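Tokens help. One example:
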Amino acid sequence: MNKILILFAHPRFEKSRTNRALLTNLDRINGVTLNDLYEQYPDFNIDTDREKELLSAHQVIIWHHPFYMYSAPALLKQWIDLVLEHGWAHGKNGDHLKNKIIFNVITSGGTREVYAANAYNRFTIGEFLVPFEQTATLCKMTYLPPFAVQGTHLLTAEALKFHVTMYHTLLEMLTKGEFDIEALKRVEFLNDWLQKERGAPKP
């Protein structure tokens, strides 16, 4: 069984209907550890030894965060800068994360359609996430496309429930190893792979 570490970073979690829903009942999924960075480090004083121990104990890592100004909240960036040290995560003798799976789970107010070359935001979500992909590559990790819940302000209760179900299904499949890693790499979003695998219609 794969153990999953969710590195959750949201400075205004109490105001996020979507993220509160996504994280509900995660403790019922065997093998999933939720690490709430803003709860754990309100002063931004990250315990790098603790974080490295958590990383070492899990096979799948998730950067779960709102899509703030085309990136992630500040604490997650600080986590990356401090925890993924040269000589441990990359560089000489930096093989501690080698071959671990990692990807982003994001929520955005903008819909999928506004993230394209000729659309409002000019670039795709994948293009905006390139720094995360390159970080993973530097650390010899296997980077996957994101799981994204977009247009959050427009979601009906039914649509939100659908995304929650899909996210929890993804976590369960990853823990059980029920996936083809090459197939996951070929999609734009992990949501697309789940739709195909499960055949579930969008709400």
In short: Strands lie at 4-8, 32-36, 60-66, 101-108, 142-143, 147-150.
